[in-house]
Amino acid sequence: MCGIVGYIGVKPADYIILNALKKLEYRGYDSAGISLLTAQGNIYTEKEKGKIVNLESLIFEKNKKISSYCGIGHTRWATHGEPSMINAHPHTDCAENISVVHNGIIENYTQLKKELIEKGHSFKSETDTEVVPHILEDYLKETDDILEAVNNTIEKLEGAYALAIILSGQEPVIIGVRKGSPLVMGVGDKDYFLASDIPAFLEYTNNVIFLDDNEIVILKKFSYDIYRKNEKITKQINKIKWDAAQAQKSGYKHYMLKEIYEQPEAVKNTILDKVNFTKKEINFENFDESIISLLKECSNITITACGTSWHAGLIGKFLIESLTDVTVEVDYASELRYREKFIKPNSLLIAVSQSGETADTLEVIKKYKKLNAKVLSICNVLGSSIPRESNYTIYTHAGPEISVASTKAFTTQVTVFLLLALYIARKRNSVNNEDFENYIEIMKNLPALLENTINATANMDKIAPELSKYSNYLYLGRGINYPVALEGALKLKEISYIHAEGYPGGEMKHGPLALIDENFPSVILLPKDSLYEKMFGNLNEIKSRRGKVVLFTSDSNIYDNLNDYADYIFKIPDCDKFFQPIVYVIPLQLLSYYIADFKGCDIDQPRNLAKSVTVE
């Protein structure tokens, strides 16, 4: 959840680190801090509750002349100890010669803290992190070998963690450690970076090294070494294709709005490297005969994910089961990881995560692999933990998604599920040539269809003042669009703080109908499909009880008198039912955005939430 930054090089470290921390604000945080190694070899630390701008003002007000080219920084999302200046990172040892920032949870910190206090150590905070510099302090009294001391320290830690450490009184170095929490390294011309995520340093370099679990990196002024335990290793430098501009707002008021408008391009990029439109073929880059054989023979697929990715998984279930004879289960990763599970032979786990670092999803993958199941991941971030733990990966190519509320990750995940369902259907001969080629042709035109959808709902901001008055919303969809209703309700909750529920239309009479009155609006998805008449019945039920209705319906709707049933009507371009979730979710994203914007909410960084949930 937290954001880690480290920098060593030839530029002013305070500016670099503060700028990098701002690029990680999307991860969610309640406080921020920085430690700089000064030219005199001392550690200077400042911490502050609240936004990074508060920390920035404090640093420049107190120390305008500080000279440092090495330091670490942190944005904290509280897990142990309330949000406060004292609990903010970095944390130091007794002598304040060691400074540490940390992402993750030290599960055995209570026992470690007790042992350290008995040895005479003094603690300032309530955090689990503070045990780390004190343990390292003890080991550095026994040896001058930093690597040995760090290895001994992490041997005592249980849990998940990414660490960045600086030490006073010697040549400037930054030590980075990863186990179970994300940590990447940036390689510049004359400088090096550590961070929880690539956007932190993308402005300075697109050369990235992905650190794996149990690896330690020691960054020096003009060199670096990477170790696994005591063994020095060599790792590949990856060139990231994103540029810094992609991770900026580009003139949009919020990242979320920018990312909504980027969806046609994101979907196009996701399709292009998987579909040969000339040959009418779908191919996935790293699929070998083993996975192809499994997809031909498997009788059961389990999809696991969290949040928005779970909604994409529900649509994936509908697509795969509609196009093939495979049975699909969809499970929250946070539940599946703790449940006893019998794995049938020829089963496949599909794990879905935008960041590739979602802690619960990662643990499910490890659990299934121990049971000898094959794992296919759908992910957006190249080289992140989940793809590395998986047997196979399909990348979504959505580009960086900065806003906490996910938009283009969802549409690209659903696009991948549609491609995968068609691929499996082709391998199992459950879809004929004519239908398959027709789907490929629709896929070719999908980006343009999304552009038309955005244009059709461009005036949605006009209804936001009226719709922002209500405290509760009901979202209704049927069939493949029921998960879209869930996703629309989630978006409204996340960014506007308005309570919303998504429901299948067929369940209206089983409870939700009791809530309907003139102060309880409903958002209804009414595409032209086989369930159209059923859904129109729901619309009728709501309007007869004086419920206010926001209706999203097909451009060629068969009823002319919809104004009698809905207060606000938006016509969405017609499309095949399998493509409807990708199309219909965009207006729901925009509806949530404009309501939240009118209310003045912090859209990109909603309260209490973080972009990547990398701890339980």
Would you mind describing this structure in some detail?
The protein has 616 residues and is α/β, with parallel strands linked by helices. Helix content is 34%, strand content 23%. The protein contains 18 helices and 27 strands. Strands 3-2-4-1-10-9-11-15 form an 8-stranded antiparallel β-sheet, covered by helices on one side. The protein has a 7-stranded antiparallel β-sheet with strand order 5-6-7-8-12-13-14. Helix 9 runs antiparallel to helix 16. The radius of gyration is 26 Å and the shape is globular. The model has no long low-confidence stretch (mean pLDDT 90).
Summary keywords:
616 residues, alpha/beta, Glutamine Phosphoribosylpyrophosphate, subunit 1, domain 1, Rossmann fold, 7-stranded antiparallel beta sheet, 27 strands, globular
Strand order of the largest sheet: 3-2-4-1-10-9-11-15
Low-confidence stretches: none
Which CATH-level-2 architecture of the largest domain? Answer: 4-Layer Sandwich
- General shape: globular
Offer a concise description of the structure.
With 616 residues, this protein is of the alpha/beta class. It is built from 18 helices and 27 strands. The chain has an eight-stranded antiparallel β-sheet, with helices on one face. A seven-stranded antiparallel β-sheet has the order 5-6-7-8-12-13-14. Strands 19-18-20-21-22 form a five-stranded parallel β-sheet, sandwiched between helices.
